[in-house]
Amino acid sequence: MQAFLRRFGHFLQTGRPVALVLAMGLLLPLLATAQAPAPGPATDAPVRFGILPLGGAFESRSDWDPLLAELSRAIQRPVSVLSVNSYEALEQAIQRGEVDMAFLSGKMALDTVSQKRMKVVAQVVRHDGLPGYRGLLLARKAPPFNTLKDLIEQPERWRLARGERQSVSGFIVPQLQFFLPNHIVMETRFLSEFVGTHQATALAVANNEADVATNNSADFERFKARFPAEAQRLQVLWESELIPHAQIVVAREYPAELRQRVQAFLVAYGRGKGPRGDAERLVLKSLHDLAGFVAADNSSLLPAARLAYQLAMQNAKSAQWVNDAARQARLQRLENGYAEQLAVLKDVSP
Questions:
Q1: Is the pTM of this model over 0.85?
Q2: Using one digit for the tens of pLDDT, what is the confidence trace for 11-43?
Q3: For an engineered disulfide with 161, which of 80, 204, 307, 321 has Cβ 3.0 to 4.6 Å away?
Q4: Total domain count for the chain?
Q5: Which residue range forms the structural domain that includes residue 144?
Q6: For position 14, what pLDDT does the model report?
Q7: What one-character-per-residue DSSP string does 150-193 give?
Q8: What separation in angstroms does the CA of 254 have from each of 100, 126, 230, 301?
Q9: Angle between helix 106-114 and helix 324-345 axes, rounded to 10 deg
């Protein structure tokens, strides 16, 4: 472009009319291209909403449809739904730019916000009023695989059903707070391993296809309501510390005004009086027994960042290294990455 402009200046100095006309014919389209702003999301394009696969993909989609229909009217934009069968599929869709808004658990929300793809606008709340839920280990009540002592002493005899690696209660928290402190690496110590949703892992244990399952208190309550006979066969072997609730995130490229409208809609949803408020509360109940949403920003992910950092540090410290210098280099990279992540999460600008 700069070389072309220099030649154009030379044409002006020599006063050649034909050259000037030709140069102008070539220059104007180039200038128009150079000055055109980068395209943002079209104002009438559907907002693509991604949903965590907490039950089945169809079940998750049908549960969210009524709320998203009202959201569409509130923001005066069509809203389409992406419901997938795995955390990995949703993560890949986000990385491909196929998701504009999403309901995500701590680790997935943390990753997409840290990569500066999304911003947090709201966090879910439940009827118990607690700021989070607890990770669980489920086992059958009937012997032989039914005590925590046996699990700790002989994990290689047990069949494990767990969540994906991105799942906070299905993988990160039980690994960090229970298995690693008891010198058990989830991926290698068990007789066999099944990976699925919280509903699928609970069913696997209830139906004697696995012996212990990672789960969480919120989804286990939902499981009891939907599968009462199977739930009767199960017991809770272990509970984690409190885990912060999931977030709603919206793409950073969207105008702050649109993110604020989404936030205002979510915060007000289910809080009204009369038949409409009652109908909204029924929708929230079907969404894993939610009480509603509260306004939130990126800083709500600080607890999730701390959990992920602690797990990474513990894994690094217990791993085998060629020498201490390599180990220390890895620990320093984790420290630096965590510091950068905190800087992003503490930026709560609109």
A1: no
A2: 444 444 433 333 334 333 433 444 444 455 556
A3: 204
A4: 2
A5: 132-244
A6: 46
A7: HHHH-GGGSEEEE--TT-IIIIIHHIIIIIGGGT--HHHHSSEE
A8: 8, 28, 44, 20
A9: 90
Alpha-carbon distance 252 to 116, whole Å?
Answer: 7
The partner residues of 41 in beta bridges, in order of sequence, read none
User: pLDDT (tens digit, 9 = 90+) per residue, 35-82?
Assistant: 444 455 556 789 999 987 665 555 577 889 999 999 999 999 999 999
User: What is the C-alpha separation between 267 and 23, in angstroms, rounded?
Assistant: 57
What is the length of the chain?
A: 350
Q: Is the peptide bond before 29 cis (omega within 30 degrees of 0)?
A: no
* Per-residue pLDDT tens over the stretch 263-313: 999 999 999 999 999 999 999 988 878 899 999 999 999 999 998 899 899
Tokens 């969207």 locate to 254
Q: Is residue 17 part of a domain?
A: no
CATH number assigned to the domain comprising residue 231: 3.40.190.10
What distance in Å separates the CA atoms of residue 185 and residue 344, rounded to the nearest whole number?
Answer: 31
Which structure tokens are listed for 225?
A: 């309501």
